[in-house]
Amino acid sequence: MNKLTKGAIAASAALVLLLAGGGTLAYWNDTADLDGANITAGNLQLTQSSAA
């Protein structure tokens, strides 16, 4: 493979990763208004108990 082909493949891969990352960011930053809904945030604490 020559340098131009390798560069094109690398640029294509970078573009795919950039678009995929942008889609993931949009998914996690989505907002919606809900009427009558309550959202509670807090900490979940898990403990390990011994098996009897």
Automatic annotation (TrEMBL):
Protein name, entry field: Alternate-type signal peptide domain-containing protein
Top-level taxonomy: Bacteria, Bacillati, Actinomycetota, Actinomycetes, Micrococcales
Species of provenance: Pseudoclavibacter chungangensis
